[in-house]
Amino acid sequence: MPLVPPHRTAGWSLSRRTLLRTAGAASMAGLLGSSVTGCGGAEEPQSGADTLGLTFPENFTWGAATSAYQIEGAATEDGRGPSIWDTFSHTPGRVRGGDTGDVAADHYHRWESDLDLMAELELASYRFSISWPRVLPEGRGQINQAGLDFYQRLVDGLLERGITPVVTLFHWDLPQALEDLGGWLSRDTAGYFADYATVLVEALGDRVSTWLTLNEPKTVVIVGYQAGIHAPGRRDRAESYIAMHHLMLAHGLGVQALRAGSSQSRIGPALNLTVVYPADDSPEAEAQAERVDGFENRLYLDPVLRGAYPEDTLDEITQISPMVDQIHDGDLEVISTPIDVLAVQYYNPTYVDANGERVTRHPTSEASWQQIHPDGLYDVLTRVTRDYGDIPLLITENGVPTPDAVTADGTVDDPDRITFLRSHLAAAHRAIADGVPLEGYHVWSLLDNFEWAEGYSQRWGIVYVDFDDQRRIPKASAEWYRDVIRRNGI
Ligand code: FCB
């Protein structure tokens, strides 16, 4: 059983995103040594060959996800402009080992064989992101036709292979030129985002039917603007909420631009949701859980689906940030422009004690912020349906990093990933059975890739990438997943 390396404590390796204070973090090995409950408390078999006998609805879509900066490489090729992640990763001390996305998984050059691989894995859907500075090197204005052509080829190649493209417009790689103008602290960035959306929908709107505006605005706010662990590396809570409002505005304007360019499309944001549990049954812990839920979930769900920021959270923000002054008349109407689909990304639950401190209650993966709790996915999905109505849901990310290595016979065995995926799929299945309109699932990730501040130290793919020679080796989980797709079940 693989052991999880201890959480490193150098500046850049502060636990990403949730900044969990890992009280007594158990290892994933502990979890995986025993059985996992994933489906109504039923014990799960541990071997990859076993099935749970659960079948998904007929039209359920199976896919995998990636993002541009994490896989493409070719950072300076064919007219691509720099993004904030180029700047950030080239700044000493920001990314583990000094890794950058300069080459990444070299997908820009290997896209065709990567598409063949997706077809071999029998994926029905592929969620990827467009590199904004590849298409608009300055973030606005002049279009880089070579960049646009790359995505045209990619989309055509997917469709030729019968794979549906799910396109994310912004997966964190803001053009550096726009950062230089203020980035998300500037309201103008939201307008430039809408212009960029228009360029894309004009080029691809006849072939792309599902568009996702922003990937995880919460992560940008917390990790990019509060903790400074992600680009642009700022540490200022007050300004982080200004960035948040502009991100949400960009989402709304983006929905409108996409809708104007393609009336048939399905459009939505990709939100990382968590379920916030009180760590004990004290009324204080419950109140803290409700409070933290505001910052983790309602701050992003409410403006989009209810047209208002949650009052309790906004009150608290107002005490530390001039963010409300940035909300113009009509902004919330824009942000709540109707969407067709909500993309949900689930990795971990959150536990909060009576003091509002985060605590760890479950084994974590190699990513110290990731407590493994499959039932949390059930709770997230059912909660959205209960509180926000029957909006169609699509899981666009869910996965786990494991310490994968190529064995002497050239294979990569990742039983822990299979256990993780199966238990989460069981939870998703249970949510569907209980009435959640969940339409599909995308594993994070198709390929091992550049995991942001962790560089190449964490392998999240179902396909192993040898970063020395760019060889791809489908892991055992990829073969397992193909069988899941074939039988439409686990
Ligand atoms: C998500 C990101 C994705 C990847 C996974 C592990 O928050 O959207 O790019 O880093 O986490």
Description:
This protein is an alpha/beta fold. The chain has one domain (16-58, 172-203, 213-259, 267-487): TIM Barrel (Alpha-Beta Barrel), CATH 3.20.20. Helices cover 39% and strands 14% of the residues. It contains 16 helices and 15 strands. It has helices spanning 28-33, 68-71, 84-89, 107-120, 132-135, 145-160, 176-179, 188-204, 217-226, 237-261, 283-306, 311-320, 331-335, 375-388, 415-433, 476-487, and strands spanning 37-39, 42-43, 61-65, 125-129, 164-170, 210-215, 266-272, 276-278, 342-345, 350-352, 358-359, 393-397, 438-444, 463-466, 471-474. An eight-stranded parallel β-barrel has the order 3-4-5-6-7-9-12-13, surrounded by six helices. A three-stranded mixed beta sheet has the order 8-10-11, with helices on one face. A two-stranded antiparallel sheet has the order 1-2. Helix 15 links the parallel strand 12 and strand 13 (438-444). Helix 4 packs parallel to helix 6. The longest helix has 25 residues, at 237-261. The two termini are 23 Å apart. Residues 1-47 have low confidence and may be disordered. The site of beta-D-fucopyranose has 11 residues, from loops.
